Amino acid sequence: MRKEVFSVGEEQLGPGRVSFAWSPKGTYLAVAGSKRKVCVYDRNGKLYDEVALPQAEVSGGDSHAPSAEALSWDPVHDQLAIMPSGNTFVFIWSPDSREVQKIDSEFKTQEFTTMAWSKNGMLLAMGTGKGNLMIYNVRERKKTPYVGKHTRKITHAVWNKDHVLATTGLDRQVALTDGANGETIRSFAISDDPYDLCVSDKKDDGYSKHEENTYSLNVGRRTLYIMQYAFEQDGLLEKPLELAFLEAYGSISKHLWFGDGYILVGFRTGKVVVVSSHSREIAEEVHQAQYLEVLTDMAYSQAQGRIAVAGSNSVRIMDVSGSEYSEVKSDALDLDPGVQVEQVGWSRDGQILTVSTMTGQLFSFLAALPVVFDSHATKVMYLTSVLEVTIADMSSTRAPPVKIDIDSEPAFCGLGPSHAAMGMNNQVSFYRLSGRGGTKVASREYMGSVSKVKLNDTHVALLIDERVLVHPIEIPAGRAPDEFDAWLPPPGQQQSVTSIAVTDKFVITSSRESVIAYYLAEDCSPVNEFRHEDGAVTRIWPQPAGSRMVFEDDKAQLYVFNPVNDQVLPIPNFSSRCENVMWDVADPNCFVVADGSGLYTYLHCPVSLQGAKVEFISKQPLQTSHSPLLCFNGSVGCRLKSGALDTVVLETHRSLQVVDTAAAKGTAPKRFTQALKLGRLRAGWEAALQLRTPDVWSQLGMAALECLDIDMALAAYRMLGDASMVLSLEQIRHIEDKNLLAGHTMVLLERDTAQAQELFLRSSLPKAALEMRKDLKHWSEALKLAEQLDPESIPVICKEHAAALEMTGEYNKAKAHYQQAIDSLMGILNMDLETSCRSGIARCTLQLGDIRQGRSQVISINSTQLYKEAAHILEQLQQLTESAEMYERAGQVSTSKLHLQFAKAKEAENRFAEAAVAYEAAGDMDSVVRLSLERLNAPQRAYAIVRKTRSVEAAALLARFCLSSQDFAGAVEFLLLAGQMDQAFDIAQGHSEMDTFARIVQSTAKAVDYKRIAEYYESRGEYEKAGDMWAASEEDAKAVQLYLKVGNNVAVDKAIKVVERTRNHTTGVLVMDYVNEEVDGSRKDEYRFKLNIAMGQYADAARDAMEMARLEQEEGNYRVAHDKLFATVQQLESLNKAVPTELMRMLSLLHSYTLVKSLIAVEDHMSAARMLVRVARNISKFPKHVVPILTSTVIECHRAGLKRTSYEYASMLMRPEYRNEVAMKYKKKIELMVRKPDKDADEAEEAMCECPFCQMPGPETELQCVSCQNIIPFDVATGKRITLADWSECPKCQFPASARHLIRILATERRCPMCLEEVVVDAVRKVPNPVEALRKKQEAFAGVGGA
Asked: What CA–CA distance (Å, rounded) separates 1168 from 1196?
């Protein structure tokens, strides 16, 4: 529970029990103690009035009892009825006049014991201690007594909304009385004394149509009676339903109704039980709990959805606003020990909880702050106590709150950038905000009641009696407060203002006359006025800048209004009662509508393909305890009923608010979707960069086009790789006219062309609509547009339209449009267009069957092309004579039928050469072959034609000719073309033309054909050819045996290829055995290498390659050995097989030797010396050239300044076994070097280079890391370790090389030192992530099993 608002002590009320009652509006609190007076306080605890009570007329009462038997407020007019205890009258006190009216009893000597106001405040019922009833009509000031309603004291009375009065008394009777005439409707007996009586609605599937038709009564503090009254026909009161509770619960202290037909029963033992009046669960305990040890009173606040349970010195609060009931432990209230609670009650708005005691005390606590708040940008101002206002920042920065102490509880407030205003009725105080507090700078009383106040940085606008007053917040010293006042609307305009808003620049008003007006805040000059056609405008919510606004009309329909162009858009998918509209401070196009139970998120798209629109994004539920205040970047700041603030993140923005990088990656798909829905294309781009899928780029591009963001669309389609879309967008990205841009975009997306046309016509370039229709060949629409936009283009459009109609066979319409095109020229000289249209008319005339007229038109035009077209049309119409004439005029005879007839005629005339030409023109190539063989003696021409046409009939004819002329090879060829396979085989077999047969059938033969050929060759001893055929028929074993039987190099290679193709182990072993036994020398190693590769035995192949290289190396053929190893490396890597380490070491050693010459050529003597030292350390592997290598090592080391190393190898050369072989020109120098060494010679340490795998430094010529044991790739340009910073590759062989050193060698030699291929310097590129590439390569080798 919050802090105490006020308290009243024993000295004011007396030492006894205290009773109280809050006025219906929560304005006044009436309190009665044991002193004979009633005190009336305002909400802040200030004594408003006192009503003195006379001494009791009936003695014998409890001296500690309240002086008023009952306090009851008129529910409509805020009049207080006071029933003094022991008296025969009632006082009615009016708060406006503070006058007291005395209502005397019509029953003398009978004190009043209970009273109750009717629901409409017109009737006051009073019961007496003798069981009589009196009803007082307030309007008529008429008293009506009713005798004998009860026989003993009336203890309780309650009205329902049907003006039926229920009373109960100590006579143990319940009576229902008609308030209109005082007649008793029904009465019935109860089993024990009554204690409290309530009326409410019983919730049932088929309950009465009358409200408040169910009564509940505490009978004997043990049983709860529930009675339903139904006003049907003669009326009836259902038999009471008796609810009994466990004995352990104790006696019932009180019960009350709450919520949707639920009853809370409180027991003296502190136990509370919730039961339902629903028929299906009426016998069930919905909830039960033990909150106190002793319970004396309970009170329900409908406004807060809470129940106060009081007993002993404690008050506990139950939350019953939802379906689950629970204690609000943070609001528990404990008074001083020894204090006993008498009564507990809420103000109507639930903001104040009042507790009275049995010892003359009353306490009022702030249970919930008044709903007084305002917001500006990300800040919200709200009450934190009755006399304190807090301004909190609800953005992510969470600046310290500003607290302002105020003089009185405000009814309204306003917040601006640097000021705050609070007030009530016609008084308003203004505060300047600074630091964490505020200073009052002005306070003013106005000539009317203020209902709303809005501020910007300098001015305030107040809504006073349906007009708006604008003035500066801070008035200069010495100036009158009203000197700068300006009233809106200006004089002469009759408008009843319903709502106001203020932005930095504008004051905005709405009125019952349907007008939304914008005024400059500085001088109140009008800026814009808009009249809503559908009714009065009741509320407005402008965007912070004022450039957009949501408004509500008197039909509760919401709209978005654009004051720039007076455009109004209805808000879709919302039919509830709007409570608040919040524009997102961080997003000028997003706003949220709240209806009390949910939040509706919308996006206003001022620019899109469809024009301005409002899109519904989503709806999410909102707890009833939350009142939305403002929205910032998808977070809705809410005020809770308790007065605290809370933030609700919109589901539409949740993923966009993820800050953690790791979490952001996981939510990228959802962030992307939400960003597109909210039109946040930049956020969508960032999410798309993480997803990088074609679908994502396509969606982003489409969303950008919908928003006409061409730059973003270009970026998305570039990432998608859609070149055509990128090129198209590049052509329109410069367009600034939104209508023109939207039109082009719709055409690009193949959307509604009618809408695109409308956009073009509204743009600055309406001719674009015509161009669109022309491009799309929509000639009818183009013609209509041309009449308005470009009459000069009508002839061309008519001509194109006619051509389109002619193609579809609509010749009449086409002819008419051709004629229209000619007529539209109107004297303009355009011979090409006119000729084209006249030609079209001629064609259409022929197509329509008017041959004579059409022929005449064609001849008059005299166009070769038109003659051809006319001839074709006439031929289709079977007008062959006319067609022939047209062909003749065109200078050709073009149809096959005519050519064929012509050819036959020439052949009949024995003009065979001309006939052959005509047959060829007609496409009858078989006749050409026939004439070439039989008449023209041109067999070679026949051969060429048949080989091209592959005609079966012509091939058979030609085969017979070849046989007759003893050309058996030709006969075989053409028999096969004729499909006579067996006959061709017999001729090939009989005349030794099997090679021809095999060559021709190789691509089409079946296995059985290959076997026949193979058997033929094998029978003739042509084993290699037989092997080829067996291999083609997949008889691999026979093929290999025959290849090995031949035994030459070609045959063995073919056998190895068979093994490679089949991977057959048996045939592989067969070939390997042959190689080992029958082949000698280097050829054996070569074959073994090829065979191991073919069989997939890559490790053995590598060993064979090293053996071959070793033999060449021992013979001094270092380049040959180098090339063999290099080729092996290339072959293994092409097969994704790992290269053995030993092979790479051998290659690096040989490369070190072959590289020396290139290094010396570029004068890199240090690198040359290091390579020679590497070779010299392995000199035993170079037996043919020991002395020359050592000599070169001594010389280069001396040149490079490596004098100790030079001396070392000079000493080796002077050994007896080498000394005599040293060349004479170097011998003396070397001898002198050994005899007189430079003992103090310094030698530079070898440079260190980091391992690319573990970054451990090591000597640059050492190719194995001592730390991670990885073999480091060597630089083919230096032979040393390669560095990450300068890592490149040879473009031809992909061996690693230092870019700088490789370019240096290429500049001199133009060849890669490893593969000796020519390389252009510009082709050398650095590798961006070489270590990762190496690891992937190693993983690939491991994945396929290695070598």
From this structure: 7
Per-residue pLDDT tens over the stretch 559-599 = 999 998 889 999 999 888 888 999 998 888 999 999 878 89
Nearest to 421 by CA among 446, 448, 440, 402: 440
| Closest of 791, 760, 792, 762 to residue 775, by C-alpha | 760
Whole-angstrom Cα distance, residue 1157 to residue 1276?
A: 13
> Quick one: residue 596, left, alpha or beta (phi over 0 = left, psi -120 to 50 = alpha)?
left
Q: How far apart are CA 1248 and CA 1227, in angstroms?
A: 34
Residue type at 356 in one-letter notation:
S
Residues β-bridged to residue 258: 262
The rounded distance, in Å, linking the Cα atoms of 590 and 582 is 9
Q: CA-to-CA distance for 1285 and 1330, rounded, in angstroms? A: 10
Rounded distance between C-alpha atoms, residue 943 and residue 957, angstroms: 11
CB distance 444 to 490 below 8 Å: no
Question: What backbone torsions phi and psi does residue 432 show, to the nearest 5 degrees?
Answer: -95, 130
Residue whose entry in the numeric block shows the structure tokens 């001088």: 523
Amino acid at 599: L
Two tokens, residue 343? 């009564």
The torsion angles phi and psi of 187, rounded to 5 degrees, stand at -145, 150
Q: 1081-1094 and 1049-1062 helices cross at what angle (nearest 10)?
A: 20
The two three-digit tokens of residue 1004, written as one number: 């089409």
Contact 774, 797 (CB under 8 A): yes
The SS3 call for residue 504 is coil
Is residue 827 within 8 Å of residue 853, measured between CB atoms?
no
Instruction: Report the alpha-carbon distance of residue 889 to residue 1205 in Å, rounded.
Output: 98
Is the alpha carbon torsion for 1211, 1216, 1218, 1223 positive or negative?
A: positive
Cβ 84 vs Cβ 35: under 8 Å: no
**Entry field: residues in the chain:** 1347
- Output DSSP code: residue 428: E
Strand partners, 926: none
CA-closest candidate to residue 351, choices 311, 396, 316, 383? 383
DSSP code of residue 683: H
Residue 378 buriedness (CB in 10 A; 0-12 / 13-18 / 19+): buried
* Short-list 435, 446, 441, CA closest to 458: 441
- Kindly report, residue by residue over 1176-1234, the tens digit of the pLDDT: 888 888 888 888 988 888 888 888 888 888 888 888 888 888 888 888 888 888 888 88
Q: Give dist(CA 538, CA 512) in Å, integer.
A: 7
Q: Please give the Cα distance from 101 to 89 (Å, whole number).
A: 10
pLDDT tens digits, one per residue of 1006-1064: 777 778 877 777 777 787 777 777 777 777 777 777 777 777 777 777 777 777 677 77
Evaluate whether 746 touches 752 at the Cβ level (below 8 Å): yes
Half-sphere exposure of 102 (CA within 13 A, CB side): 11
CB atoms within 10 A of CB 271: 20
Is pLDDT at 110 greater than 70 in this prediction?
A: yes
- Max CA separation in the chain (angstroms): 160
pTM above the 0.85 mark? no
In three-state secondary structure terms, 112 is strand
Q: Where are the beta strands (DSSP E) in 236-334?
A: 236-237, 241-244, 252-258, 262-267, 271-276, 285-290, 297-301, 306-311, 314-319, 326-327, 333-334
Instruction: Provide the Cα torsion 749, 753, 758, 764; round to 10°.
Output: 50
Nearest to 1151, CA basis, from 1327, 1290, 1247, 1266: 1290
> Facing residues of 223 across strands?
219, 244
- Taking alpha carbons only, the member of 91, 109, 78 closest to residue 36 is 91
Give the residues across from 396 on adjacent strands: none
Asked whether 706 and 690 are in contact (CB, 8 A), the reply is no
Rg (CA), the chain: 55
Tokens of 997: 């047969």
